[in-house]
Amino acid sequence: MRNPTVQHFPQRQPFDCGEDEIEGIGNYHLTDNDHDEAETIWDPLQLAASSGNLVEVNALLADGRNPNALPQGWYGKTALQVAALHGHLAVVQVLLASGAQVDAPGGNNGGRTALTLAAGATTVAHQVQSTIIDRLLHEGADVNHPPHPYMGRTPVQAAAEGGNLTILRCLVALGGDIRAPAAKTSGRTALQAAAEQQHIEFVVFLLQQGVVVTEDDMRVSQNKAGVTALQAAASVGNKKLVKTLVDAGANVNAKGSRFNGCSALGAAAGGDFVDIIWMLIDAGADLDQVEGNHGRTAMQVARVRGSMNAVRVLKDAAQRRAYMSSDIDHILTSSNA
């Protein structure tokens, strides 16, 4: 029997300045056959927990099934993790009472603890989500459990990504680290996650709590498929969010990720977001900045993506810059004559 309700992660990541399929990054390009191989048979208790079948969960536990059976497959989850993700409160309570390990690691790819999955859940009623998180915390769940190196999140990062501000505030109040570094591959800090999902209130909250945008950006260029908060905001064309981050001191020319990365200007150009392009140029964006393993400028990103409005605007900006530069040279030459 196969898992009928697999949900790998609560959120998908829209940001990607590259066009090529690179081995080892996400499952964005997996075929149906790849999924067949990836989703191996789950433990019966994990299946029952995933579907919220409390009767079957109780029967399996009474029959001696291990509540801590290891995750199966690339994106496998323990019974507690999958119950927490899907908001099956009664199942969570039974599993905890049966000795389920609250901070057990997840599968090989992007393994997340039960608390992290619950904090980032997007399809669970907020009251149920809060109750599950309270139960996990009561059982000693680590509010600062480090992220899995591949697509991992801390509980705070997951909450910033997920969209429940009450959960984020709660975790921060309990000592959750708002400055925790992102996972090495496809990771997101809390600020980056909030920006990518366009949670403006979350971004404002994190800034008010002391996140420094320039410090938050520092590790992005060293990671695979990383993104600064400003690059994420530019990639989705959110003017209010871009302005908020620029006003907070975001570096418009911060380096992009070494895999599929690009500048904030390149991100806006790829999405054909003309207003964002002008905002970034006015803030000092470098038209010639080259980023990522593709080594592309914003103009090249726009051409690859077929963003012809962006191409036109970037050409116009380059011509204006050249005109201003020649004008300044003329003035300097005249003054030295």
From TrEMBL:
PANTHER family: ANKYRIN REPEAT DOMAIN-CONTAINING PROTEIN 39, ANKYRIN REPEAT DOMAIN-CONTAINING PROTEIN 39-RELATED. It comes from Polychaeton citri CBS 116435. InterPro entries: Ankyrin_rpt, Ankyrin_rpt-contain_sf. This is Ankyrin. It comes from the Eukaryota. ANK repeats lie at residues 75-107, 151-183, 186-218, 225-257, 260-292. Keywords: ANK repeat, Repeat.
